[in-house]
Amino acid sequence: MDKITIGIPRALLYYKYKDLWINFFEKLGCNVIVSPCSTKETLENGKKYLNDEACLSIKIYMGHVDYLKDKCDYVLVPRYVSLVKHEKLCTNFSCLYDLVRNKIDVPIINYNIDIDKKEDEFYAFTGMGLALGFKYAKVVKAYKDAKKDEKISSDKRLLKQKSILGSSKNIKILVAGHPYNMYDNLIGKPIIEFLKKNNIEVIYADIYDKKYLKSEVERITKRNYWTFNKELIGSISHHKKRMDGIILLTVFPCGPDSLSNEMIIRNVLDVPIIQLVIDELDSEAGIITRLESFIDILNERRQVHE
């Protein structure tokens, strides 16, 4: 029997769950194909399926699905509604399955996460494995082993960032954005590469000890119920005292980010902040000019305080 081939779009929640997804399917014995890094062609292909008002991250995602449509048995398109009771994610994540199913002719394997309906990750992954035809015991083992690998990878990233925070004397900038924006080849990667070329230590907002999340979020707000934005707020609150500056990285037109970013700017007054809102028409040169000015300000500020 030929192995099942699963295609995973390198966009959106890939950057949060890639270790779990890839390890789970490989431990089941599936082949896994991940679409290549985003390019302008990826974006153009994604735009064919959406109207102009769709956010940049979704357009890129659809371009990745388009790339995979003839290269695998199934494309993984999960549906995420809530990860925490009485909290929500952006509606793009809850409608993603329906969007892809109605716009692109591609076979889909999916799972639902909706904590308010008691649809948790274990329930979701076991259901997905069974739908692919694997035995329950094998699916459970694959999931548990993949979770262990995910934690090992996460712990390594956390230790590496803690080491940088504790040892480096360079200017430190917290890049505060969702992983799918920070690490995407078209959105965040050019910014991060520019910072590193200028001897800036880049600190990533998705890497921090989550046990402090609730207390750190409440330093800034008690009323935000967007889970991913609460994680950003918690990370900013946790890191800000050790940062020279903060970059708020978002894409146009993200509703939850527009609200949360305004809240952050009003409440984090002791650290310089620059907000970069990226859309498909942005010139990289213009963004670099803003970053150069921001770095100059941070350098002057540090000299004054030394």
How would you characterize this protein structure?
The chain has 12 helices and 10 strands. The termini are far apart. The chain has helices at 14-28, 40-47, 56-68, 91-103, 121-131, 136-167, 179-182, 189-197, 213-217, 227-239, 255-267, 284-305, and strands spanning 5-8, 31-34, 74-76, 79-82, 108-109, 112-114, 172-176, 201-204, 245-251, 273-278. The model has no long low-confidence stretch (mean pLDDT 90). Helix 5 crosses helix 6. By secondary structure, the chain is of the alpha/beta class.
**How many individual helices?**
12
Quick check: average pLDDT? 90
Structural class: alpha/beta
Report how far the terminal alpha carbons are from each other: 67 Å
Percent helix, as a range, is 40-55%
Order of helices and strands: EHEHHEEHEEHHEHHEHHEHEH
Radius of gyration: 20 Å
Largest sheet: number of strands, sense, barrel closure: 4 strands, parallel
Can you summarize this structure?
The protein is 52% helix and 14% strand. The protein is of the alpha/beta class.
Secondary structure: elements and pairs:
Blueprint: E1 5-8, H1 14-28, E2 31-34, H2 40-47, H3 56-68, E3 74-76, E4 79-82, H4 91-103, E5 108-109, E6 112-114, H5 121-131, H6 136-167, E7 172-176, H7 179-182, H8 189-197, E8 201-204, H9 213-217, H10 227-239, E9 245-251, H11 255-267, E10 273-278, H12 284-305
Parallel strand pairs: 1-2, 1-3, 3-5, 4-6, 7-8, 7-9, 9-10
